[in-house]
Amino acid sequence: MKFEAILFTVAPLFSAFVISIVGKKSDRASDIFASVTTCVLACAAVYTVMLVRSYSVVVDKVGGWAPPIGISLVIDGLSAFMLVTINTIAFLVTLYSIDYMKRYTDKWKFYTLFLLMVAGMNGVVITGDIFNLFVFLEIASIASYALVAFGTEHEELEASFKYMIMGGVSSNFILLGIGLLYAFASTLNMADLSLILAQDCSAPLLHFVSVLFFVGFGLKSAIVPFHAWLPDAHPSAPAPISAMLSGVLIKTLGVYALIRIFFCVLGVTPAFLSVLMAAGVLSMMVGVVLAIGQWDLKRLLAYHSISQIGYIILGIGLGTPLGIAGGLFHLFNHSMFKSLLFLNSGAVEYATGTRDLEKVGGLNEKMPVTGITSLIASLSIAGIPPFNGFWSKLMIIVACIQAHHYLYALWAVVGSILTLASFAKVQKFAFFGTLKSALIGIKEVPIFMRLSMIALSIICIFGGMLLLPHGRAFLSYAVNVVLSGKEYALLMAGNV
To answer: Which residues pair with 58 in a beta bridge?
Structure first.
């Protein structure tokens, strides 16, 4: 089967180039090009799941050069899972941006940077070359630095600068680790590298490189104690970018890369899994405790991103089939409900001009769509049945109990209770109660913003159906890749 995996990077890059030319004359052209591109990518991503069902692994040899000499693009169960997650959110965020970004000048610059970020994330997911993973990671990161500062106000510029410095530090750790591996193995192809490390690797080198990668990708994924940049960066960005940053960027550049390199290339050890579990629980509790006291809606959501990433890391760190399934399923679910929550916060700010919970109230009266979708997302993130967040959290908690990590299971339950308390506060102060006199004249947000929020809320309601037999394959293919670990190299070798 011939499928051009390079479509996932070339299409957004080409569209970004076109928008940079025609978008200067027409915002409508920018809207159309960006929306069509992300829609095509979302459809192509769904198609990759069917490809994986039939062929397990699809390898696209760039320029016809076979790996390890040439560059390869790989679509397996894990990359297909991530492609669907990234490009679904990208499409819905693009629709939302059609109306939301009218408040900013030079919309074409936003779309150009946005599509560069999408191209970078897709590249990270499909590349079979560890140095190209770094290159695509940098493309996505640099675009995100600019997007955080897009409003050019003091707050945005300061947050972007802090984000850029921390991102630069993490990139240096990652690049140093890649350099050391290349010096040892003389190859950058991840499958080839995996085979060489399996046969002969100095333990001190592997341990040192593992530390470099854990710190580097830990910074990208904002797990505690590497989280300091996130509470400033996410609130400062425009709402569509906050949704992308929290929904998919930190998972792609951080969590996915961590899983791919450690499970499929370096190999995992019980000690490393223990570190992951401890970091997951720490992130889970620190994030939610810091979130409870926040009155800035977007900053509150940013701290919850740290907390929910903790659940994902805990599930993956368990290393069991159920734990990994729960972690990956929560990655998907969190992408949906956290993107929705940031779009809700953007709608509140769009209509009222503030994101301070103490200055709003009773918004359900004037903004019913925003209020209802926000309630759905709040119940989802808190793990209330039957919403999607409940099922993935339940899987992680049960996996902890099965693995006899009872204390970790308890912390996961406590984290969910505190999350529920935090979002009860959001609903009470923002949407329930009496509408304040200063907000009498507000109205619901425009149609495209509403459509995006409604679509995400539908996924939150019915996302649990992915655990049914007909939808389970989407998740199980990704889980199998992680569980098979370094067999990734052998699967690739058979498809070259």
So the answer is: 75
Q: What are the tens digits of pLDDT across the range 420-456? A: 999 999 999 989 888 887 888 888 899 999 999 999 9
Calculate the alpha carbon distances from 262 to 256, 265, 488 in Å. 10, 6, 12
Confidence of residue 492 (pLDDT cuts 50, 70, 90): low
- Listed in sequence order, the DSSP H helices in 222-318 are 230-236, 239-244, 250, 257-261, 270-292, 297-318
Question: Structure tokens of 211?
Answer: 């530390």
Q: By C-alpha distance, which of 209, 223, 128 is closest to 174?
A: 209
DSSP string of 62-96, one letter each residue:
GGGPPTTTS-EEEE-HHHHHHHHHHHHHHHHHHHH
Contacts of residue 456, defined as CB under 8 A and 6 or more positions apart, other chains included, come to: 92, 336, 337, 339, 340, 343, 373, 377
Separation CA 249–CA 242 (nearest Å): 10
Give the contacts of 50 (CB within 8 A, at least 6 positions apart). Answer: none
8 Å CB contact between 104 and 150: yes
Residue-wise pLDDT tens digits, 58-113: 888 776 677 777 788 889 899 999 999 999 999 999 999 998 988 877 888 999 99
How many whole angstroms separate alpha carbon 152 and alpha carbon 349?
Answer: 17
**CA neighbor of 377 nearest in space, from 415, 412, 418, 420:** 420
Tell me which residue has tokens 């760190």. Answer: 317
User: In this structure, which amino acid lies at residue 153?
Assistant: E
Question: Would you tell me the crossing angle of helices 154-185 and 190-199 to the nearest 10 degrees?
Answer: 50
Residue 190: exposed, middle, or buried by beta-carbon count in 10 A (0-12, 13-18, 19+)?
A: buried
Non-local (6+) Cβ contacts of 461 within 8 A are 376, 386, 387, 388
At residue 129, the 3 state secondary structure works out as: strand
Q: What gap in Å lies between CA 45 and CA 126, rounded to an integer?
A: 11
Amino acid at 133: L
Task: Give the number of other Cβ atoms within 10 Å of residue 361's Cβ.
Answer: 19
How far is 37 from 107, CA to CA, in rounded Å?
A: 16
pLDDT in the model for residue 227 = 83
Distance, in Å, from the CA atom of 446 to the CA atom of 452, rounded to the nearest integer, reads: 11
Count of CB atoms situated within 10 Å of the CB of 155: 12
Strand partners, 72: 61
How far apart are the C-alpha atoms of 66 and 70, rounded to whole Å? 5
Q: Give the SS3 label for residue 48.
A: helix
Residue 73, beta-bridge partner list? 60, 127
Query: What six digits make up the tokens of 100?
Result: 């939301």
- The answer to whether the Cα torsion of 415, 420, 425, 430 is positive or negative is positive
Q: How many residues does the chain have?
A: 496
The rounded distance, in Å, linking the Cα atoms of 52 and 281 is 33
Cα dihedral value 164, 148, 120, 331, nearest 10: 100
